[in-house]
């Protein structure tokens, strides 16, 4: 496999798979997520692909739509798939941003005019949600935000994604709890700001970007609220470049990371509802996935080639053995077949929707669960090779710090990293 780097002289490559540069970029900085990659990574992939103006970029795991947003900013058409409801709605605000400052000023004035909600908060949220939110948000701010949730129906449907983005940022800024690693930790305090100050900060930022962009910005993106295991809206050979980052097989839970927002916007009112309404539709990468999906091992394993199964089986057995001796008793071994079978479904769909010779750029990480090293980047590369792609390179972008190696995951001698898989459709 030829060693090459696509990312010389644009940004230190260790920053490419991170969100560390997002705040430099208009629209991107309106709302970003700790698991996202950089706009620079997308730009480099677009440049390397030599795209023509009428060609389309696809992202099967859109998240908060870094790929689609950057494609918009550079004048390219794009299409994405996202099964997480909160990410989907926030993405809509970024992909179809306001064109005039008065749209933002209206939302700001509307939110400033709201009075704190005076009744029981359980009239708005479930008891479980209220208990969780009260640990994170000071009472006055939470009651103002409660009024904003109730008042959403007074905002036009066209403006509701922007309304949700603004208030979700306010929710985060008013929170007195730090994000500890990647999860919101009620016991870890941070400095919060008032509801009014947060509104002013967020709306000023958006209005400044509208000034920078002017009237020349034309959205060219389409985002579908669905899994990419079946990209039904896309015709065969309709796309020319893939830039994406799938969920990592590291047991970090995208639903848990966004529990505050899922409760706040009433996507779910309990842990069980989060599982059924959110986790069920995501790629299986965490032990909190629905039990029936994890237990359906035979169905998932049979979809994989015998050669691939032979790679997975030793890892499966090692993790199964570790479960018996570890105090946590996590069933990590049940994640392997579902994860790779679902990723294979996505790759097969990519093969269908991409034109011949199209480039595929995937940012992914390996994992160490109970000390068992999972070389995810190599296994995904093998799946690509088995399903119609030529893998040209696997480049290490960075090594990952201690927050990705919690105590229950330590024990492997191999350090963990994030990788760029560069492939091409045959």
UniProtKB/TrEMBL annotation:
Gene Ontology terms: biological process: methylation
Q: E.C. number, please?
A: 2.1.1.113
Reactions accelerated catalytically: a 2'-deoxycytidine in DNA + S-adenosyl-L-methionine = an N(4)-methyl-2'-deoxycytidine in DNA + S-adenosyl-L-homocysteine + H(+)
Q: Does the keyword DNA-binding apply?
A: yes
List the residue ranges forming a coiled coil, or say none: none
Which keywords belong to this entry? DNA-binding, Methyltransferase, Restriction system, S-adenosyl-L-methionine, Transferase
Name used for this protein in its record? site-specific DNA-methyltransferase (cytosine-N(4)-specific)
Q: Name one GO molecular function term.
A: methyltransferase activity
Query: What's the top EC group for this one?
Result: transferase
Keyword Protease recorded: no
Show the Pfam families listed in the entry: N6_N4_Mtase
The residues covered by the DNA methylase N-4/N-6 domain are 31-91
What protein family does this chain belong to?
Belongs to the N(4)/N(6)-methyltransferase family. N(4) subfamily.
The record's annotation in PROSITE patterns points to: N4_MTASE
């Amino acid at each position: 496999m030829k060693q090459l780097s696509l990312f010389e002289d644009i940004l230190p490559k260790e920053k490419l798979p991170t969100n560390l540069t997002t705040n430099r970029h208009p629209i991107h900085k309106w709302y970003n997520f700790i698991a996202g990659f950089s706009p620079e990574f997308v730009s480099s992939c677009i440049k390397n692909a030599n795209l023509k103006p009428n060609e389309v970029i696809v992202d099967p795991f859109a998240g908060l739509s870094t790929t689609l947003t950057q494609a918009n900013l550079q004048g390219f058409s794009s299409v994405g798939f996202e099964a997480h409801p909160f990410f989907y709605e926030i993405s809509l605000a970024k992909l179809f941003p306001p064109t005039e400052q008065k749209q933002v000023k209206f939302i700001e004035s509307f939110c400033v005019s709201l009075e704190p909600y005076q009744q029981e908060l359980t009239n708005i949220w479930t008891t479980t949600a209220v208990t969780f939110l009260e640990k994170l948000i000071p009472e006055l701010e939470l009651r103002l935000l409660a009024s904003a949730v109730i008042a959403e129906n007074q905002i036009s449907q066209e403006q509701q994604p922007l309304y949700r983005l603004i208030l979700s940022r306010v929710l985060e800024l008013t929170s007195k709890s730090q994000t500890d690693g990647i999860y919101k930790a009620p016991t870890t305090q941070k400095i919060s700001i008032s509801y009014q100050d947060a509104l002013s900060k967020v709306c000023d930022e958006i209005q400044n970007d509208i000034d920078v962009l002017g009237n020349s910005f034309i959205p060219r993106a389409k985002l579908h609220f669905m899994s990419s295991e079946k990209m039904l809206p896309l015709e065969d050979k309709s796309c020319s470049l893939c830039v994406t980052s799938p969920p990592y097989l590291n047991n970090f839970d995208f639903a848990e990371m966004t529990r505050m927002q899922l409760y706040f916007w009433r996507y779910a009112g309990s842990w069980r509802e989060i599982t059924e309404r959110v986790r069920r539709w995501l790629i299986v990468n965490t032990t909190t996935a629905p039990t029936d999906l994890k237990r359906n091992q035979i169905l998932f394993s049979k979809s994989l080639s015998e050669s691939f199964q032979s790679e997975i089986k030793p890892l499966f057995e090692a993790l199964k053995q570790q479960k018996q001796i570890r105090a946590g008793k996590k069933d990590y071994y049940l994640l392997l077949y579902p994860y790779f079978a679902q990723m294979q479904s996505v790759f097969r769909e990519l093969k269908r929707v991409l034109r011949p010779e199209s480039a595929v750029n995937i940012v992914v990480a390996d994992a160490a669960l109970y000390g068992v090293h999972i070389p995810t980047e190599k296994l995904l590369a093998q799946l690509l090779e088995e399903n119609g792609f030529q893998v040209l390179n696997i480049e290490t972008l960075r090594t990952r710090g201690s927050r990705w190696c919690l105590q229950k995951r330590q024990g492997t001698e191999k350090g963990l990293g994030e990788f760029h898989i560069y492939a091409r459709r045959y």
